[in-house]
Specification:
mainly beta; seven-stranded mixed sheet; 0% helix
Length: 118
Amino acid sequence: VQLQASGGGLVQAGGSLRLSCARSGTIFNIRAMGWYRQAPGNQRELVASITNDGVTNYADSVKDRFTISRGNAKNTVYLQMNSLKPEDTAVYYCNLHVQLGSFKQLYWGRGTLVTVSS
C-alpha cells in the first residue's frame, strides 16, 4: 500500500489550499483515512480524519476552516483548507488506519509542506 500526497505549497494568510492523498494497492479492513501535521519542534497531531463509514473528526484548531472528504472510490482523500493561518504551517501527512479486531496498522505517506505567510 502506498499513499501519495500532493497539494502543499506557499499561501498567504487567509488563503486556501487543497491537499490530496491517493491510495494505491489493495487493502482490507480500512478503519479510516486522515491527515496529520507536524510543525518544527512539535509533535505530529491529528488534523482531520474520515472513517470508512464517512464519519469525520477534526482538531478543534481547524474546525469550520478545514473539510475532509474522499473520492467516490474511497481511495482518495482530500483536505480543503480555507482561512489559513500562519500557525497552520507544517508538514502534512496522509494516514491510513487499518484495524481487524485488536490488530492495528498505520500507514503514512510522505509529507507535503504547507507554508502560510503572514
